[in-house]
UniProtKB/TrEMBL annotation:
Keywords: Flavoprotein, FMN, Oxidoreductase. This is Flavin reductase. Transmembrane segments: none annotated. InterPro entries: Flavin_Rdtase-like_dom, NADH-dep_flavin_reductase, Split_barrel_FMN-bd. The keyword Flavoprotein applies. GO terms for molecular function: FMN binding; riboflavin reductase (NADPH) activity. Residues 11-157 form the Flavin reductase like domain. It comes from Enterobacter wuhouensis. Pfam families: Flavin_Reduct (PF01613). GO terms for biological process: pyrimidine nucleobase catabolic process.
Length: 164
């Protein structure tokens, strides 16, 4: 087994929230499904988003300079698949569910658990991916009771509190 395969197998054991990352601007409206999103700092509020440089939408995100991280609810498993489907045209993806915009103009999923509207402040190239450092401009939080995570190569709903 190669180190790369072993790494991928081990990373499958690291559960992650599933998000649809969107952009809109001079380069057009695009989106993709991601689990490689995390907090960097709260002063100023900053996230990082990792995106494969071979993605059909990569250059569009760079040129637009904005994005929105839409954290998916447990009922969004099909939507995750829509935005992960490389054979769909960009405009077809946004026909699913309801979308709004906030400060940046990037599409905001109306039914997301939370949405982080961001400016791409910096970008570093690491291996096959770009790491976007995203300064949060606005946040929308909903009352969705359950989130969607990806763990062990499968989707799982989360949201029940553990009682002490």
């Amino acid at each position: 087994m190669t180190l790369q395969t072993e790494f991928r197998n081990a990373m499958a054991q690291l559960g992650s929230a599933v998000s649809v990352i969107t952009t809109d601007g001079p380069a057009g409206k695009f989106g993709f499904t991601a689990s490689a999103v995390c907090s960097v700092t709260d002063q100023p509020p900053t996230l990082l988003v990792c995106m494969n440089r071979n993605s059909y939408a990569h250059e569009h995100f760079r040129r637009n300079g904005v994005l929105c991280v839409n954290v998916l609810s447990s009922h969004h498993q099909a939507l995750s698949g829509v935005f992960a489907n490389a054979s769909l045209r960009s405009e077809e993806r946004f026909l699913h569910d309801s979308w709004q915009v906030m400060n940046s103009g990037a599409p905001v999923l109306s039914s997301s658990v939370a949405s982080f509207d961001c400016l791409i402040a910096d970008c570093h190239e690491v291996g096959s991916h770009s790491v976007f450092y995203c300064q949060v401009q606005a946040i929308r939080i909903s009352e969705q009771p359950r989130g969607l995570v990806y763990f062990n190569r499968r989707y799982h709903a989360v949201g029940h509190d553990i009682e002490a």
